[in-house]
Structure formats: structure tokens, C-alpha cells
């Protein structure tokens, strides 16, 4: 599985770099990444993360379509959809609902499966769902959520001995910090 995990990790890095640069090719490369990681996570008994890949597949298709329809279909860099700010009240409401969903799902996984780290895996999965949805909508707050997810994921994947994936999520953490800065600059520029 190691070669597949390395290929998945490499496609993941490429996808996030392209996303931070607001490049349309982030989405199809991300699709390859999620298909590989579904198989990897399922075999590692991280079922929430495996199921998360199904969601990522759907959101990658949606994000690709959403970014594409907002600009010229021949333009590789889709700037027609601006980076946006989610109002604070909605943001905190969505964060609270996500936390409650994560705890509920984690309890279900702990009770009825042989999942490893069921609560932490559920938190990673549910907050990834939120961050990916916000990313597809080009909401600036997606990046801090990704930063938190990446910190937690590094710990879980390291404990599982998943070296390429641990390295990937450490890189994701750095890329998320860079993505936050890049998107924040775009947002500020658009606000004048």
C-alpha cells in the first residue's frame, strides 16, 4: 500500500497548491486523490475518513463545476468567483452544528464499528466536510478550519504509522497557512 499512499499524498499536495492559487485544475487532481484515499483509509480502519472521501468526490465535482461556471471555460485561473467572507453568526452556527455532528457520529462509530480513534476520526471528517464546502464556495474561513483539521490529522495518522499521510497532512498544514494568506490578500484587495 505504500506506493499508493505516496501517490495519493503527492496528488493531495498538488491539489492544495493549485487550490491556494485558485487554479481550476485543483479539482480534477483532487478527484484522483480522494479515490486513492478512500481505499487507503478503509484499509486502515479509519472509516469516517474513508466515507469522507465519497463526500470529497462529490464536492470536488461540485467545486469544479461551481468555479467553472463563474468564469471563462477556457481560463485556467478562475477569478470570476471572488473570495468571500461568511458572516460571523452563520460561521459560528455552522461550527457548532459541525461539532455536534462530529461527536454524534464518533459515538456511533465507537459503538458499532471496530474503527480506530472513532471520535477523533469523526472530528477530522466532519470538519473536513465543512471546510470543503466552504472551499468550494470560496469562503475565506475555510482555511482556518483546514488548519485545525490538519493539526489533528497529523496526530492521528502519525499514531496509525501512516508515514506518507502524516507527511502529507503536515504539508497540508503549511499549505493551509499559505492559502489563508493568499485568499485573505485577494479578499482585502477586492474590498478595496
TrEMBL record:
Membrane topology type: Multi-pass membrane protein
Sequence similarity: Belongs to the nicotinamide ribonucleoside (NR) uptake permease (TC 4.B.1) family.
Domain of life: Bacteria
Keyword entries, A-Z: Aminotransferase, Cell membrane, Membrane, Transferase, Transmembrane, Transmembrane helix, Transport
Protein name: Nicotinamide riboside transporter PnuC
Annotated localization: Cell membrane
Family matches, as NCBIfam families: NMN_trans_PnuC
Keyword Transmembrane: yes
Species of the source: Tuwongella immobilis
Pfam families assigned to the protein according to its UniProt record, in alphabetical order: NMN_transporter (PF04973)
GO molecular function: nicotinamide riboside transmembrane transporter activity; transaminase activity
Protein's job: Required for nicotinamide riboside transport across the inner membrane.
Segments traversing the membrane: 6-39, 46-65, 91-110, 117-135, 166-183
